[in-house]
Amino acid sequence: MLHFFYYLSIIAMTVPIESNNVLRQQYISVIDTIVNLNIGFLKFLNEGQHMLNKETPNMTPQHNDVYDFIVVGAGTAGATVAARLSENPAIKVLLIEAGSNENYLMDVPALAPYLQLSDVNWKYYTKPSDKYCLGMKNNKCHFPRGKVMGGSSAINYMIASRGTAEDYDRWAAMGNEGWAYKDVLKYFKKLETIDIPHLQSDTTYHGTNGPVHISQSPFRTPLADIFLQAGQELGYTVVDYNAENVIGFAYPQTIFINNTRMSSNRAYLHPIRDRKNLYVTRNSMVSKVLIDRRANRAIGVQFIKADQTISVFASKEIILCAGAIGSPQLLMLSGIGPFKHLTDLGIDVIRDAPVGENLMDHVSYSGLAWRVNEPLSIREQDYFRIFRNSYIMDFLLNNTGPLTSPGGIDALAFINTKQPEKHNGSPDIELMLFNFIVKSYHLSWKVLNLKNEVSQLMRNFEDNHGWSILPMLLKPKSRGRIRLLANDINVKPEINPNYYDDPEDVRTMINGIKAAINIANTKSMQAFNPQFLRDICEQYTFDSYAYWECAIRTLSVTIYHLSGTCKMAPRTDPTAVVDPKLKVVGIKRLRVVDASIMPEITSGHITLPVYMIAEKAADMIKKRWRL
Description:
Elements: H1 2-13, H2 17-54, E1 66-72, H3 76-85, E2 93-96, H4 112-115, E3 124-125, E4 142-143, H5 165-173, H6 181-191, E5 192-194, E6 212-214, H7 222-233, E7 248-250, E8 256-257, E9 260-261, H8 264-269, E10 278-281, E11 285-292, E12 297-305, E13 308-320, H9 323-333, E14 336-337, H10 339-344, E15 351-352, E16 363-365, E17 369-372, H11 391-398, E18 409-415, E19 429-434, H12 442-447, H13 452-458, E20 465-473, E21 481-483, E22 494-496, H14 503-520, H15 523-526, E23 531-532, H16 545-554, E24 556-558, E25 590-592, H17 607-624
Parallel strand pairs: 1-2, 1-13, 2-10, 5-6, 13-25, 14-15
Antiparallel strand pairs: 3-4, 7-18, 8-9, 11-12, 12-13, 16-24, 17-20, 17-23, 18-19, 19-20, 21-22
Helix pairs in contact: 1-2, 2-11, 3-17, 6-17, 14-16
């Protein structure tokens, strides 16, 4: 094929200049583009095959097989725990994943939102509400979760942030001994290889030899620099938000390797694919934990693969890493959860526990957008150009260009809206600068599950250059819950995030919106004469409290940070599901290791905290079994 296009190029060169030089040059340009596309496509296929070759082999356990440890879920936490426990060659570890292989297409950073419409997503939706998600079909928000090797780390936006020291000190103050910042910092460093040159010398806060690579996209639009300049106008500094001071403005740190996504699968499992004592079964849906009721001890799990129901057993421990939806669902199906709720569904209760309570998430508002006349940003159609300024070509040939942007996030800011003059301590809002108008993308309408009448309003902004700033509520006071709808693993649970139940959350989010508008009103950003784009809640006076409350309840958007549903607390605390060793209270040899154990959500994106939780859990398990 490449030879064919090469000969076409030679033929083009023989076209007489006098016949039409411009036409000849255009012809040559087209042929060159096709040749380069073929080269790039072959490179892409080679990378995909190389990645497939690194996948841990898929196997199917036999009924009644016994392992030392069984890890449920190969997501951010599960891949980490399985890799660390299997470091001891005498230990047999079974890792069970409901999804399939990760593929190279999933690791193109800008494709993050597209993955939410694919089969590697569980495609959860929230319970209909009259208080939030009002602009979504049936008043239900789409809640993407990864169903694939790597879990949500394989479909997320790849932002690397740890939260603040105060977050973890607060966990410790709640009675969770060993979880203060001084205790967990070593695990953040252990998991990390910092590939950002100017941060590599900071060995106080950064690691240099861990499996998870932290870098930055080689691509930013001019908006990123302008946004940081705007922050400096307002008195903020450019910060490393994963070090001592979080409050300030920054380019995003990303979980990248070679300008592509690095999931937990790539970070922890690919390097050990030939490890003989780690067994992985994919496309395997765990339906319950098997518990010896007389001893109150977890002994195994039951799972379904290819229409077969298989039971396997663990001589040491079962470790649930199924996430903030999957882990509480499995516990409740196994008889561990709220007594009345389980009894009503005909589930035999083994232990009455507040499983599924304390649901937290970082909610955002997707409606803040500004239009400009200059081509500063990325429009949806720009991604699909091939013959001129091709973003596809940039990535295929060199791993550069806009396709390396983490879902279009160009810059971040962490602010304290209650004390805006205070530029240290804990933020309550994160602002994410997107290098496009989020509500102008057809893709966004589908991902967000927008009602037809709402997406019709958004059509006014198609083909426009501009930007969006999404404020993210970092420390929500509202709490939701997960509940079963049936005694059946195939029936998705009811998810009630309960956004904005606490009036303080409404006030903080509106303050965050005002802060975003202040940034847009700085000299730096006003230099481009941006036009603020209004579209919803026209029944209210613009910029009034009532207007913004209507707006945030209409365009409520998850930032995919579900957590807290198997709360960690001292065993004497009635809200505890797991203790500070992550052991399920009242049940021996059963732990939960994922975002569900967070007693309070951290002040940032939660992928790095989940890695940290898994690294710390692996050490605790090794210590318990003297490994």
